[in-house]
Automatic annotation (TrEMBL):
Keywords, comma-separated and alphabetical: Membrane, Transmembrane, Transmembrane helix
Transmembrane region(s): 36-53, 73-92, 104-126, 172-189, 195-213, 225-244
An example Gene Ontology molecular-function term: Delta14-sterol reductase activity
UniProt-listed PANTHER family: DELTA(14)-STEROL REDUCTASE, DELTA(14)-STEROL REDUCTASE TM7SF2
Membrane topology of the entry: Multi-pass membrane protein
Protein name from the UniProt record: Uncharacterized protein
Any one GO BP annotation for this protein: ergosterol biosynthetic process
Length: 290
């Protein structure tokens, strides 16, 4: 029998896990029709919001075939509208409707995982059509690896780019993290280099559900932090987000031929790498140039 640990780290009972995995009732319990319909409604909302809400069209980087894709940047108004709808529901009916997410958490997780798998599978099959631009790292010939890492570079339905859409909207907005500086995403390796496979499709699952495990844990193990520790946690979180945003913003500027802060850069086999935070540290390999 596993020893009690007070919840952190959680107790692990190998026998219980084995029993659950071999039980059809356990697998059946993962499915929740009501939660699946709710998740499909959420996904439909972000798609319709992408289509109808105003937003600037931004050109991405030049691809290997010489083309530039255009991306509609309206994730922030999509998030604001979702937040407004949630506030309106609470105002009209109280907070009880929002407990649906808590009571149907497992079902929502299952629905999101199935959505990830379906998208990854459809995109993998579609990547074998004639004329598809493949990702260099996702065209190895290994079906399992290519399915996971992504075979096609930018699978799209017309102007609707699946990869950039899934990177931002279903997961990040569901997590209530409003990524205001969205255009910088278009020069990240996820968009310019990686294909769209299960690894990136699964972002709609692991971002909102793993990043909220802490809150779910606190529901079962309530902790009174007090104002000092609460402020400290918020401060560390904001500092981390600031570093994340400034680093990505500077890399985005540098990749677009701008260097307003005269940052140093490191020359590598694949190009130049720079950001304020790297410049303040010491590069172990390569050369540093002003």
């Amino acid at each position: 029998m596993a020893r009690p640990t007070g919840g952190c780290p959680p107790a692990f009972d190998a026998t219980a896990v084995s029993t659950a995995l071999s039980s059809w009732a356990w697998w059946k319990g993962l499915w929740d029709t009501e939660a699946a319909l709710a998740y499909l409604t959420w996904y439909a909302y972000v798609v319709v919001a992408w289509l109808l809400l105003p937003g600037e069209w931004i050109e991405g980087t030049v691809m290997r075939d010489g083309r530039r894709k255009k991306y509609k940047i309206n994730a922030f108004p999509t998030a604001l509208l979702a937040l407004g709808i949630a506030v309106g529901i609470v105002y009209q009916k109280g907070p009880e409707p929002l407990t649906f997410v808590y009571t149907h958490w497992v079902g929502l997780l299952t629905a999101s995982t199935i959505m990830s798998l379906v998208q990854a599978f459809v995109c993998y099959v579609a990547s074998f059509r004639e004329g598809a631009l493949l990702a260099l790292g996702g065209n190895t010939g290994s079906h399992i690896y290519d399915f996971f890492i992504g075979r096609e570079l930018n699978p799209s339905i017309g102007s609707f780019d699946l990869k950039s859409f899934n990177e931002i909207r279903p997961g990040l907005i569901f997590w209530i993290v409003l990524n205001i500086g969205v255009p910088a995403l278009l020069t990240t390796m996820d968009i310019t280099t990686d294909g769209f496979g299960f690894m990136l499709a699964c972002a709609i699952t692991w971002v909102p559900f793993t990043y909220t495990v802490q809150a779910r844990y606190l529901v079962f193990n309530q902790v009174e932090l007090g104002p000092v520790y609460t402020a400290l946690i918020i401060g560390v979180n904001l500092l981390g987000y600031y570093i994340f945003r400034t680093a990505n913003g500077e890399k985005n500027d540098f990749r677009n031929g701008k260097n307003p802060k005269n940052l140093q850069y490191m020359t590598t086999e694949s190009g130049r790498v720079t950001c304020l935070w790297l410049s303040r540290g010491r590069f172990q390999r390569g050369s540093i140039r002003p």
